[in-house]
Specification:
Elements: E1 6-14, E2 24-33, H1 37-45, E3 57-64, E4 73-79, E5 85-96, E6 100-106, E7 110-121, E8 124-135, H2 144-165
Length: about 180
């Protein structure tokens, strides 16, 4: 793959036994970076920086724990299904620095689970991002087809942002972790 290239490898809508009869959309994409695996990991694991690469996120702040540690929690403001701001509680559930981490976002309408893996690749690194979203409740705000379409589009915004975010060195030394 060409440096900086991205491949969307999977967009699925799953039903039934996988998620207790709730619609679930999954998307996986790959981003190659000139950054080392350590540098790429440090940038992406700090969810307070998510607004730098996902323009669908309005705000994000660390509310508990330490950046890059299991149990760290973030209050993330997103645009809800109704177009209004919605607060989502994200938690780092596993961390294996610099190889991978998982995050879970909880909201009354949905649950988001993301797996991020980073590996050395050529002179830089390769990030693989697996995102899933399960709608909750008896009357979900979207039907299955609309969920698959909207989720894929939202994840694509994050993919494009991550390509830029991981494409160059910046002054990380001034940031506190």
């Amino acid at each position: 793959m060409v440096k900086g290239a991205t491949k969307i490898s999977r967009v699925n809508l799953l039903h039934g036994w996988l998620c207790n009869n709730h619609a679930m959309a999954t998307v996986t994409f790959v981003v190659d970076s000139s950054l080392s695996a350590d540098a790429a990991f440090d940038r992406v694991v700090d969810l307070s920086r998510v607004t730098e690469w996902d323009r669908g996120i309005r705000a994000s702040s660390l509310v508990y724990g330490q950046v890059g540690e299991v149990g760290a929690r973030y209050d993330v403001s997103v645009r809800g299904f109704d177009g209004q701001p919605a607060s989502v509680d994200y938690e780092l559930t596993t961390v294996d620095r610099p190889a991978s981490f998982t995050i879970r976002g909880s909201h009354s309408d949905f649950q988001a689970d993301d797996i991020v893996t980073i590996e050395p690749h050529g002179a830089g690194s390769r990030l693989t991002y697996e995102a899933s979203l399960v709608l909750l409740g008896d009357n979900p705000p979207l039907d299955d087809d609309r969920l698959a379409t909207l989720f894929a589009a939202n994840v694509d915004v994050a993919r494009i942002g991550l390509e830029a975010f991981l494409s160059h060195e910046d002054v990380d030394e001034g940031r506190s972790s």
